[in-house]
């Protein structure tokens, strides 16, 4: 029977409070090598972490530093240096190449009715040496601090800083807007207006770091009448304030800021850095014609690598202009640029190619092709949102990256000359590994498992040919959460469910079980398919599954066919088969686990978000006898009604198996096919109670999708509840929304599974 509600609420809130306090590790930066009086070498390691603060209802950032003593071949000693401290209002930060300077982009709350301001600061080892009010200068709009466009890059000479900001938009008025005449203005004031001294010059051109001319645009622009309500496109989910990015340069010594000219108007620039010798800027340019599509988590948008020359403003194409590219990284010797490449359109996430551009020969080569099938023990292919910010080994030949390898994530070293790959974590504990940085062959990584929160690991990269001997040292431990066991199992679809062109594919699932408590022997089961659909659960720390397991639930995380980490054929098998292949894979996995594990088959629930919510709604409609409760977060419910409102209309057609063209409208047969593959089709068969959680600001799966399902369930008299989260987008990642979502999910499952 269900215990009294209040004691259960207090117990759950305390559990969530305990587990949500585990911090996440986001950034690492190695300082320059120093020499002790005895000849030994050591360096500092600066790290940034994030943590949920439930009392303040916000994510806080804090930093912690460590010391690493090494002899170039191994780490002699490592340990923390002092305690951690909170970072306030830092948006971006970057150390200079020598490690003697640091640039910080900081937001400063406005006083009274003033708007929030942005300051660009430069610090040396003892003090702040520059503080520039970018908002007051009004040279451009807000500086981008996202990881899609944003950058904060030092020139090699450490005299200039490069960043991305929103282009200054001319002031616009309506046709009937007018200013009141200014009273009390003398002729003297009119003829000789006073000017305030500005600490930083705003120039239209000035000498660049390479001795050439760096061009900019005029700061003052006329008021545009009748343009007040003109629509301005943006880049969609999480990028709604990003419309027209521009590259900007701060001349630290000359105290001037300029906006670069020469970039074609049909491109949106980002991910920029200085070219060798500081003669220009290399950047990724995204096409935004005929209109902008959502860019977040979409590595299939047409883009290319460009170089703009500061000596004359000439813009040069460095890569093919018919692909999608991102994450360019310059080698330490300044000779090569590696970057990731996908095909345009198609699945939003794919198995990527690793390409390399030689700066001096102007030759582009393919280091690694996409992998059609992931063979056990072999390199799985590249499935990552970005390369590490610093990924090159000291030899300027090898690079480090992390990628999904089926249901775990591993670190690999790639020889760019031969294309050979070696795992650096093959003999390390199984779980999820991520590269944070590598500098002078000192390697810093993050490691976690479903039962162990993130910990900090360091190693020295061995010489070429000996990488498999990498020895990891734990610098910041995180004790395992008690009461959780987990394992990975592989499943093969039955012959009648094989893909006709991509036969022989298998898939994985991660099963977490409670190892203690009253339900440990035969726990109820919560099934969680991932979103995407071209995404993957890797065996790392996840708050919701860990908390559910501690509550006494077994949790099944299903990587159905179409997931990343299993080869490109696996990805390609799903478009055109959503609502059938992925649904059957999840149901097969559930039935197999219930047969082979001691679980309570009468108490099974579904939890899913986005495409995971799409699958959950399909499953409770197609297999109503299996599931007793359902919780969905921003679910895709009706592809046909979503296509006209989402920031990714191409997703709707691609995953339905239809071609996407920006200038083409779906015909009646295509509308029918989209509806046919949608879970709303099966709503008459649903019997499980459904809890919906919707983000008011979701641009990816607009909340009207969830509302459509909610009304359909209500009209049929089914138990349903809807939670509406203002100020939250698709991820529902706001601290308050995330905490409230967990509590409501937990209570809903306990109530309807009668635990």
TrEMBL record:
Keywords: Cytoplasm, Hydrolase. InterPro entries: 6-blade_b-propeller_TolB-like, AARE_N, AB_hydrolase_fold, Peptidase_S9_cat. Residues 176-207 are annotated as: Disordered. It is an enzyme of class 3 (hydrolase). It is found in: Cytoplasm. Residues 191-204 have a biased composition (Basic and acidic residues). Pfam families: APEH_N, Peptidase_S9. SUPFAM superfamilies: alpha/beta-Hydrolases, DPP6 N-terminal domain-like. Its main location: cytoplasm. Residues 11-192, 231-475 form the Acylamino-acid-releasing enzyme N-terminal domain. Its EC number is 3.4.19.1. It catalyses: Cleavage of an N-acetyl or N-formyl amino acid from the N-terminus of a polypeptide. GO terms for cellular component: cytoplasm. GO terms for molecular function: omega peptidase activity; serine-type endopeptidase activity. It comes from the Eukaryota. Residues 547-754 form the Peptidase S9 prolyl oligopeptidase catalytic domain. One of its GO terms (biological process) is proteolysis. PANTHER family: ACYLAMINO-ACID-RELEASING ENZYME, SERINE PEPTIDASE S9 FAMILY MEMBER. Belongs to the peptidase S9C family. Homotetramer. This is Acylamino-acid-releasing enzyme.
């Amino acid at each position: 029977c269900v215990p009294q509600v209040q004691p259960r609420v207090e117990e759950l809130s305390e559990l969530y409070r305990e587990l949500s306090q585990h911090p996440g590790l986001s950034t690492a930066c190695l300082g320059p090598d120093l020499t002790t009086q005895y000849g030994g070498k050591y360096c500092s390691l600066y790290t940034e972490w994030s943590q949920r603060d439930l009392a303040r209802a916000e994510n806080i950032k804090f930093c912690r530093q460590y010391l690493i003593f090494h002899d170039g071949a191994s780490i002699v000693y490592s340990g923390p240096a002092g305690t951690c401290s909170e970072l306030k209002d830092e948006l971006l930060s970057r150390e200079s190449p020598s490690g003697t300077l640091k640039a910080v982009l900081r937001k400063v709350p406005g006083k009274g009715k003033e708007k929030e301001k942005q300051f660009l600061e430069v610090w040396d080892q003892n003090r702040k040496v520059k503080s520039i009010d970018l908002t007051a200068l009004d040279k451009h709009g807000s500086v981008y601090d996202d990881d899609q466009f944003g950058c904060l890059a030092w020139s090699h000479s450490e005299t200039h800083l490069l960043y991305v900001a929103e282009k200054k938009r001319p002031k616009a008025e309506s046709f009937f807007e007018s200013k009141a005449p200014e009273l009390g203005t003398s002729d003297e004031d009119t003829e000789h207006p006073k000017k305030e001294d500005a600490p930083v010059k705003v120039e239209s051109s000035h000498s660049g770091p390479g001795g050439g001319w760096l061009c900019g645009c005029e700061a003052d622009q006329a008021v545009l009448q009748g343009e007040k309500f003109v629509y301005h496109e943006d880049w969609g989910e999480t990028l709604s304030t990003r419309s027209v990015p521009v590259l900007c340069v701060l001349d630290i010594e000359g105290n001037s800021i300029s906006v670069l000219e020469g970039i074609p108007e049909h491109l949106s620039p980002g991910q920029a850095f200085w070219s060798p010798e500081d003669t220009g800027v290399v950047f990724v340019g995204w096409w935004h014609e005929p209109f902008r599509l959502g860019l977040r988590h979409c590595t299939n948008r047409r883009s290319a690598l460009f170089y703009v020359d500061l000596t004359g403003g000439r813009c040069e194409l460095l890569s093919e202009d018919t692909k999608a590219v991102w994450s360019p990284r310059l080698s330490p010797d300044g000779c090569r640029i590696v970057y990731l490449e996908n095909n345009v359109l198609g699945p939003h996430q794919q198995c990527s190619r690793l390409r390399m551009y030689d700066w001096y020969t102007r030759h582009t080569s393919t280091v690694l092709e996409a992998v059609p099938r992931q063979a056990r023990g072999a390199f799985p292919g590249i499935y990552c949102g970005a390369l590490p910010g610093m990924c090159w080994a000291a030899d300027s030949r090898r690079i480090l990256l992390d990628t999904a390898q089926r249901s775990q994530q591993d670190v690999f070293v790639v020889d760019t000359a031969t294309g050979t790959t070696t795992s650096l974590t093959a003999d390390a504990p199984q779980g999820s590994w991520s590269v944070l940085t590598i500098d002078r062959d000192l390697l810093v990584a993050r490691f976690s498992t479903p039962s162990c929160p993130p910990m900090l690991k360091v190693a020295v990269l061995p010489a070429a040919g000996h990488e498999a001997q990498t020895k990891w040292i734990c610098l910041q431990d995180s004790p395992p959460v008690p009461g959780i066991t987990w394992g990975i199992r592989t499943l093969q679809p039955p012959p009648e469910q094989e893909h006709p062109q991509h036969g022989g594919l298998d898939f994985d699932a991660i099963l977490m079980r409670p190892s203690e408590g009253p339900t440990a022997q035969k726990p109820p089961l919560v099934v969680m398919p991932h979103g995407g659909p071209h995404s993957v659960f890797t065996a790392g720390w996840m708050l919701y599954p860990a908390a559910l397991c501690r509550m006494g639930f077994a949790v099944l995380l299903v990587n159905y066919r179409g997931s990343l980490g299993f080869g490109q054929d696996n990805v390609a098998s799903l478009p055109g088969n959503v609502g059938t292949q992925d649904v059957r894979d999840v149901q097969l996995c559930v039935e197999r686990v219930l047969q082979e594990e001691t679980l309570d088959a009468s108490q099974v629930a579904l939890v899913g978000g986005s495409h995971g919510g799409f699958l959950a709604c399909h499953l409770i409609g197609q297999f109503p006898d299996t599931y007793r409760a359902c919780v969905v977060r921003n679910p895709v419910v009706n592809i046909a009604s979503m296509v006209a409102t989402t920031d990714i209309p191409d997703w709707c057609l691609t995953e339905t198996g239809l071609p996407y063209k920006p200038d083409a409208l779906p015909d009646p047969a295509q509308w029918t096919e989209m509806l046919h593959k949608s879970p709303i089709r099966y709503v008459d068969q649903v019997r499980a109670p459904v809890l919906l959680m919707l983000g008011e600001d979701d641009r990816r799966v607009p909340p009207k999708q969830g509302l459509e399902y909610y009304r359909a369930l209500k009209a049929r008299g089914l138990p349903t509840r809807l939670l509406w989260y203002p100020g939250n987008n698709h991820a529902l990642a706001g601290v308050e929304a995330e905490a409230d979502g967990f509590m409501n999910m937990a209570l809903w499952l306990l109530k309807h599974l009668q635990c």
